């Protein structure tokens, strides 16, 4: 399942960062597990390495392909070379020890994240989001999920002022992973009480249960929940794995 630290970094950045930087934060979650993607080999400088990740992943309903790579050049030279080879990546963000290049290619949004690994080494990642008419599809999925008792989609909607900040899905050989990050204007105590009662009503069994973290199981589904105070309310991370062994 995806890392909690990466999820919370995402939550902290969602309100104030560009779309490109948010996608680079998703990479911290996505590359932890994945099958070969459909991306073709990138045109990289001699001596570079690259590996495909991503598999059957979706971000807010959009397919996402991922590639990670290493370049034996300083970060400034690597960014300049990639910018020349991929001129459609015309937007640049500069951060300490990091450069982000992004741009649109037909119906795809490309984000290339470069990080310095020393004076002559740069590691990077490319994420490609394929734009679809996913808003209506996602709404239909959510409605169907509520009818079928899908905890990930139905439970948070019972929270006052809850907003979905991140939704990531990953199909794997041993089942399906889903991550959601929500914010609510309600207090931590109220959110915790509503979630706990809702899960019990839907026959989930608590394996561990504290005011801020809990772990629940129902049949072959495993659900981890983390709740924390944020500015203006509460943040909730839901990590669910379907197909878990007992």
Can you walk through the features of this model?
The protein is of the alpha+beta class. It folds into two domains: 4-130, no CATH class; 134-242, TATA-Binding Protein. It contains six helices and twelve strands. The protein has helices spanning 4-14, 19-30, 75-85, 134-148, 151-154, 188-201, and strands spanning 49-59, 62-71, 91-95, 98-105, 108-116, 122-130, 163-172, 175-184, 205-209, 213-218, 221-230, 233-242. Strands 3-4-5-6-2-1-7-8-12-11-10-9 form a twelve-stranded antiparallel β-sheet, with helices on both faces. The longest helix is centred in the middle third of the chain and has 15 residues, at 134-148. Mean pLDDT is 76; it is low at 1-6, 13-22, 28-38 and 134-149.
Topology at a glance:
Blueprint: H1 4-14, H2 19-30, E1 49-59, E2 62-71, H3 75-85, E3 91-95, E4 98-105, E5 108-116, E6 122-130, H4 134-148, H5 151-154, E7 163-172, E8 175-184, H6 188-201, E9 205-209, E10 213-218, E11 221-230, E12 233-242
Antiparallel strand pairs: 1-2, 1-7, 2-6, 3-4, 4-5, 5-6, 7-8, 8-12, 9-10, 10-11, 11-12
Helix pairs in contact: 1-2
Provide mean pLDDT, rounded. 76
Backbone CA Rg: 19 Å
Beta content: 35-45%
Which strand order do you get reading across the main beta sheet? 3-4-5-6-2-1-7-8-12-11-10-9
Order of helices and strands: HHEEHEEEEHHEEHEEEE
Largest sheet: 12 strands, antiparallel
Helical content, roughly?
A: 25-40%
Low-confidence stretches: 1-6, 13-22, 28-38, 134-149
Categorize the overall geometry: elongated
Span of the ends, CA to CA: 16 Å
Question: How many domains is the backbone divided into?
Answer: 2
Total helix count? 6
Secondary-structure class: alpha+beta
The strand count comes to 12
